[in-house]
Design a protein that fits this description.
The chain has about 260 residues and is α/β, with parallel strands linked by helices. It has one domain: Alpha-Beta Barrel (TIM Barrel), CATH 3.20.20.140. Helices cover about 40% and strands about 15% of the residues. The chain has nine helices and eight strands. The structure holds zinc ion. Zinc ion binds next to loops.
């Protein structure tokens, strides 16, 4: 059994067939899905979706750095209310993304700090997004780490020194189908062995990041939780251990991390 710790099931690409998408995931052994909240609105929508499949779907509540310019002082209060729902298991995704800068650096820092404040004040795990922003991200994490319950750097795609810095702070690491990419995932194939299995979790980031090595590839190019086994398989090949071992360990890690 596997746990997909990051799937954007409130995305419009799943509007017409989300129930089928969930059934297909169950069929291939995905035991739970953590639906990613990336705006106030879709964090709320995620709760409604969780109610359709209680004890199967869980979700996070947060504002993605791309949407940081929408963050107001009242947003933290709204997220706090959303987090009171039993099916919400982490604050986020939140963090910094200087790759595209859809929001300014200043807006991103404000939005991120507000969610670090929230997560630490209500003692919930944090679900992080970091891209091309390692040093600013690390500085903030260091400030908050002592009061933080736990945190996962989702969709980690960085370098060795970045990975080490996160592990040194006792953070968890999420690996997506990025690792299945022969070219841009090559370094991850080598790095993944540096992540202790009690710190490693797996995710699809669906509908994004369809594993490149998937065969056959769906015509739509849409990624789904049912393709999570490909991520687990690729990691098990990199580590040269059984698929079942990686599945069991990453699932246990996710259960402990999200307390599900
Ligand atoms: Zn992300």
């Amino acid at each position: 059994m596997l746990i997909d710790i990051g799937a954007n099931l409130t995305h419009k690409d799943f509007r017409n067939d989300v129930e089928q998408v969930i059934d297909d995931a169950i069929e291939v052994g995905v035991a739970n899905i953590i639906v990613t909240g990336s705006t106030e609105q879709n964090s709320e929508l995620a709760i409604e979706l969780n109610e359709v499949r209680p004890d199967y779907l869980y979700s996070t509540a947060g504002v993605h750095p791309h949407q940081a310019n929408e963050y107001r002082s009242v947003t933290s209060k709204h997220l706090n209310v959303i987090c009171e729902n039993e099916s919400v298991v982490a604050v986020g995704e939140c963090g910094l993304d200087f790759n595209r800068n859809y929001s300014s650096k200043k807006e991103q820092l404000y939005c991120f700090e507000a969610q670090l404040d929230l997560g630490t004040s209500i003692d919930m795990p944090l679900f992080f997004h970091e891209r091309d922003a390692h040093s600013d991200f690390l500085n903030l994490i260091k400030q908050y780490r002592a009061n933080m319950k736990s945190g996962v750097v989702h969709c980690f795609t960085g370098q060795q020194n970045e990975l080490e810095a996160y592990l040194d702070l006792d953070l968890h690491i999420g690996i997506t189908g990025w690792i299945c990419d022969e070219r841009r995932g090559k370094h991850l194939k080598e790095l993944v062995s540096s992540i202790p299995l009690d710190r490693l979790m797996i995710e699809t980031d669906a509908p994004y990041l369809l594993p490149r090595s998937l065969e056959p590839r769906p015509k739509s190019n849409r990624n789904e939780p049912k393709f999570l086994p490909k991520v687990c398989e690729t990691i098990s090949e990199c580590l040269d251990v059984d698929y079942d071992h990686v599945a069991e360990q990453t699932t246990n890690t996710a259960k402990r991390f999200f307390d599900i």
